[in-house]
Specification:
The protein is α/β, with parallel strands linked by helices. The protein folds into two domains: 9-72, no CATH class; 100-281 and 287-417, Rossmann fold, CATH 3.40.50. Helices cover 41% and strands 14% of the residues. The chain has 18 helices and twelve strands. It has helices at 9-21, 27-37, 58-62, 64-71, 85-91, 108-117, 139-145, 172-177, 190-196, 203-216, 232-241, 272-278, 284-298, 306-317, 321-333, 351-360, 399-402, 404-417, and strands at 100-106, 130-138, 154-158, 181-185, 221-222, 224-228, 246-247, 250-253, 338-343, 369-371, 377-379, 387-392. The strands form two sheets. It has a ten-stranded mixed sheet with strand order 1-2-4-3-6-8-9-12-10-11, sandwiched between helices. The two termini are 45 Å apart. This is Hydrolase/acyltransferase. Pfam families: DUF1057.
């Protein structure tokens, strides 16, 4: 039982939402809240009137003491909560790192080859390469610009699609405070595709963009590569097939590394005819409103604009599955320290999808470290010394947002495992 005199963060979070959402308070919580508040300076907070279902009075919600507590920044603030990952990201404290931009010329060799092969969608691709504007943050550059030139390990982070570096708002500050530099960037979006008519978000394009970005920044070693969702396939390809970049360890967060997964099961959206039309600057404006209507009809779990769903889908099919299987086997054979984080209630990935990926990495799906809905460890499993798997009961597709404590600890352990390789 916590000591009286301050209000626990989980009660603050619930109380702030009470006046609008009218959330009922369970008897267990009511009893303990009453016992906690008795005799404390915060005893003025009115807890859970049974008839109204309110947790606190409107005056209490507006009190600046509570509002200040809500806005306080904590890198580990997203403990187990009923709020969705999108709400947590929306309310996350803004990253204070310098936003940087750079233009990368990339994929010239790929486009020359694909044009010669007659690959659809690349007839207008310049053989000199695409000029891609990249937005990124680099915590190490921020340090050096302030005179701190301490040598620290470097982590490279790939978002999913759609995704932004802000998706890692609960992870980047933690790594930075624990002596790890972080480089994270935004992938080109579908608007870039419509502007150029040739960037179709394939795994080869993304991997080549990363290699050329790192060369431009004069980086040839990555201590830890962290990827989320569809960012996993270029991450796997970078580790397995790019000898110019030395990647010491790999973290796959809710990875999509299969052409067939739960989120791609709707034939209304994901069919050859639709994708043929989408790979056209003329067909896309016609198909996007249709996508938007179908998404609402089938309640597709991907949030945001219809363009974002197209972006995500192109990213998830822009690779050869048998090639990814070989890449995973290569990573396994090289004994690259790896962690995989999966979630049982992921609406884009089924448990079968997750088991398939773990098996391809040579990991027994029954030997994961299993955490319950409260973030408590139920089973401490270990595949072996190479691959470690973490399974969250209710992590959703953004388990690193809902349970940053668990994921951040695992990332630090991974980068320590990679030392000396």
């Amino acid at each position: 039982m916590p000591q009286p005199g301050f209000l626990p963060p989980h009660l603050v979070r619930v109380a702030l939402l009470a006046s609008r959402q009218k959330l009922p308070l369970q008897r267990y919580t009511t009893h303990h809240a009453a016992a906690f508040l008795q005799g404390s300076p915060t005893a003025w907070v009115r807890v859970a009137l049974a008839k109204t279902g309110f947790l606190v009075s409107k005056a209490a919600v507006r009190d600046p003491r509570i509002r200040h507590r809500r806005c306080a920044h904590k890198a580990v603030a997203a403990a187990p909560t009923a709020r969705s990952a999108f709400q947590l990201l929306r309310d996350a404290p803004p990253l204070t790192y310098k936003r940087r931009t750079i233009e990368i010329t990339t994929c010239g060799d790929l486009y020359k080859k694909w044009r010669a092969e007659g690959r659809r969608g690349y007839d207008q691709a310049p053989e000199t390469g695409a000029r891609v504007p990249v937005v990124y943050i680099h915590t190490g550059l921020d340090r050096m610009e302030h005179g701190d030139r301490t040598v620290r390990p470097l982590t490279l982070m790939f978002t999913g699609a759609p995704g932004r570096y802000q998706d890692f708002s609960y992870n980047i500050p933690f790594l930075d405070k624990n002596g790890v530099d972080v480089l994270c960037f935004n992938w080109p979006g579908y608007d870039f595709t419509m502007a150029t008519g040739y960037w179709w978000h394939s795994c080869d394009e993304k991997t080549r963009l990363v290699v050329d970005l790192l060369k431009k920044l004069k980086i040839n070693k990555i201590d830890m590569l962290v990827s989320h969702s569809t960012g996993s396939t270029p991450a796997v390809q970078l580790v397995a097939e790019e000898p110019s970049i030395d990647v010491k360890s790999l973290a796959l967060l809710m990875p999509i590394a299969s052409r067939h997964f739960r989120g791609s099961e709707s034939p209304l959206i994901f069919n050859p005819g639709t994708m043929w039309a989408m790979r056209s600057r003329r067909g896309a404006p016609i198909m996007v409103p249709l996508f938007h209507a179908i998404m609402k009809l089938i309640r597709h779990p991907t949030k945001g604009r219809a363009y974002d769903v197209v972006f995500a889908y192109l990213s998830s099919i822009g690779y050869e599955e048998h090639r990814v299987e070989k890449q995973l086997a290569t990573i396994r054979d090289r004994k690259v320290p790896t962690i995989v984080v999966v979630s049982d209630n992921d609406r884009l990935l089924s448990q079968k999808d997750n088991r398939t990926l773990l098996q391809r990495l040579g990991c027994d799906p029954e030997k994961t470290c299993l955490y319950d809905k409260g973030g408590h460890l139920l089973r401490c499993g270990c595949c072996d010394q190479v691959v470690k798997a973490i399974e969250l009961k209710d992590g959703s597709h953004y388990g690193f947002v809902r349970y940053p404590d668990i994921c951040n600890k695992a990332l630090l352990e991974l980068i320590n495992r990679a030392k000396g390789r």
